[in-house]
């Protein structure tokens, strides 16, 4: 885990860290940067910046529509890396995670990708569709480990115990605990189910556990944070608001207000 992520999770204020997911370059590069800045200024401890693909198998309709918009605009993984650089230049304390699919990294070249994100001080990578048995995941993991960049791994309610143990062994940074199986933004989290999964993860891992999927409102975030987790992840609520307010001149500021409303419940 990077020293920055260690510092973030070691902080006691707030006890549960707020992690905001945004589709990089959505709706445009310039607006995306301002949106992310506002979220950081209003309390996001970590930002997950998604790079888009037409093969986004785990995304619900809201995030898929946003990624389609980004692709139609011609934005690339390189643009998202540049965006992350500008975010880092703006704030040296926020955690930055790049999140997406393995095909983008394969086409970019995994080794070149890791070199590029090392230069700009990215803290971690989360690849949605790369199980640890996949050769490309292993190459990515080896390269990230050399440069002390976290590989965030996903755990779902359906993950068998033996597989869970292996994921906990290799995951770094934090474990992304999926509150339900399936695509993003289509269900709500069930507190008892989340609590059971968190307890299973803790049997095999001592790194922070962060909960995502189905956290739609500040009240949801408050409920989930009552479980002994270290972070709450919100994505679809932000992306949906952006999609519905594309022409609002106050869009970045309003994202900041939404962020603040979530953070104050933690």
Account of the protein in words:
The protein has about 270 residues and is an alpha/beta fold. The protein is built from 12 helices and 8 strands. Helix content is about 50%, strand content about 15%. Strands 1-2-3-4-5-6-7-8 form an 8-stranded parallel beta barrel, surrounded by 10 helices. Residues about 180-185 have low confidence and may be disordered.
Q: Summarize this, please?
A:
This protein has 266 residues and is α/β, with parallel strands linked by helices. It has helices at 3-10, 29-41, 61-72, 77-90, 102-108, 110-119, 135-146, 161-170, 191-202, 218-225, 236-244, 251-263; strands at residues 17-23, 46-50, 95-100, 124-127, 150-155, 175-178, 209-212, 231-234.
Strand ordering within the main sheet: 1-2-3-4-5-6-7-8
Average pLDDT: 93
How many H/I helical runs? 12
Number of strands: 8
Largest sheet: 8 strands, parallel, barrel
Shape: globular
Spans with pLDDT under 50 lasting ≥5 residues? 182-186
Beta-strand level of the residues, as a percent range?
Answer: 15-25%
Question: Using only CA atoms, what is the Rg?
Answer: 17 Å
- The string of secondary-structure elements, in order, is HEHEHHEHHEHEHEHEHEHH
In helices, the fraction of residues equals: 40-55%
**Amino-to-carboxy terminus distance:** 23 Å
Summing up helix and strand content along with how strands pair, one would put the structural category as: alpha/beta
């Amino acid at each position: 885990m990077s020293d920055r992520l260690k510092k973030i999770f070691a902080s006691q204020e707030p006890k549960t860290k707020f992690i905001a997911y945004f589709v990089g370059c959505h709706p445009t590069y310039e607006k995306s940067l301002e949106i992310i800045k506002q979220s950081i200024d209003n309390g996001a401890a970590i930002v997950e910046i998604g790079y888009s693909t037409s093969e986004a198998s785990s995304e619900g309709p809201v995030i898929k529509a946003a990624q389609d918009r980004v692709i139609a605009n011609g934005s690339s993984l390189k643009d998202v890396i540049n965006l992350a650089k500008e975010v880092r230049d703006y704030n040296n304390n926020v955690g930055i995670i790049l999140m997406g699919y393995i095909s983008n990294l394969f086409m970019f070249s995994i080794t070149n990708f890791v070199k590029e994100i090392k230069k700009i001080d990215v803290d971690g990578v989360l690849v949605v569709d790369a199980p640890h048995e996949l050769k490309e995941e292993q190459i990515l993991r080896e390269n990230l480990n050399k440069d002390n960049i976290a590989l965030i791994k996903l755990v779902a309610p359906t993950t068998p115990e033996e597989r869970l143990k292996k994921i906990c062994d290799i995951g770094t940074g934090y474990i992304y605990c999926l509150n339900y199986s399936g695509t993003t933004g289509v269900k709500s989290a069930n507190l008892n189910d989340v609590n059971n999964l968190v307890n299973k993860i803790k049997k095999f891992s001592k790194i922070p556990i962060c909960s995502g999927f189905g956290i739609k409102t500040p009240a949801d975030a408050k409920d989930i944070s009552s479980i002994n987790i270290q972070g709450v992840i919100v994505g679809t609520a932000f992306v949906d608001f952006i999609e519905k307010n594309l022409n609002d001149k106050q869009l970045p500021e309003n994202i900041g207000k939404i962020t603040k409303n979530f953070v104050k419940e933690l």
